[in-house]
Amino acid sequence: MRKALLVLVICILAAPAWAGSGFSLFGSYSQLSDDAESFGVGARVTFGSHNWVGDLSGTWFPAVDNVDTIGGHTDKIQVIPWDFGARYLFDTSGSFRPYVGGGGTFFYNHLNDGKLDNTFGLYGLLGFNLGHHKTKFFAEAIYRYAEADATYSHPGNPLKGKMDIGGFGINVGVMWTN
């Protein structure tokens, strides 16, 4: 996890060197599974052109207690999504600029008592930027989805199953661009 955060910090510091680039810091509220939701914080590196941009985002959510996982088992879960995708920003007059996007998500998952595999999934988003200058406000709705294998090692009777990861979320933050 420390290596991943180090890579994200390096990307954020290097972002201004890329044409059409920027970086963002944001607060997030999201479903982590069918039975867990949390507030978190994230960062995004953006690169690309005027209308099409690529994004690399990481969002940290603290662990959530008393989550129903599989087979009626209750556990503490942590989900940290890493999103890589593209957005299309629509041309508008004024400071309001809507966008749509999507891509892939790597879910880093952790259960306190069991094992939840890290997995890949998909995401889609709809949002807007607000501002004319290099510093802009943004807000977006995002939906992430994947399935992960969960395992509990009960003596003589291991419990295995699939668990839905992700769900609806909202990101709100500040973006700095070239």
Explain what the structure shows.
The protein has 178 residues and is mainly beta. The model is unreliable at 15-19 (pLDDT under 50). It has an 8-stranded antiparallel barrel with strand order 1-2-3-5-6-8-9-10. It contains 1 helix and 10 strands; from the N terminus they run αββββββββββ. It has a single domain (2-177), classed as Beta Barrel (Porin).
Q: State the distance separating the first and last CA atoms.
A: 29 Å
Shape: elongated
At the third CATH level, what is the topology name? Porin
The CATH C-level class name: Mainly Beta
Outline the low-pLDDT stretches: 15-19
The proportion of residues forming helix, as a percent range, comes to: under 10%
Taking all residues together, what is the mean pLDDT? 88
* Number of beta-strand segments: 10
- Could you give the order of the helices and strands? HEEEEEEEEEE
Number of DSSP helical runs? 1
Query: How much is the radius of gyration in Å?
Result: 18 Å
Structural class: mainly beta
Supply the number of structural domains.
Answer: 1
CATH architecture: Beta Barrel
Give the percentage of residues in beta strands: over 45%
Largest beta-sheet characterization: 8 strands, antiparallel, barrel
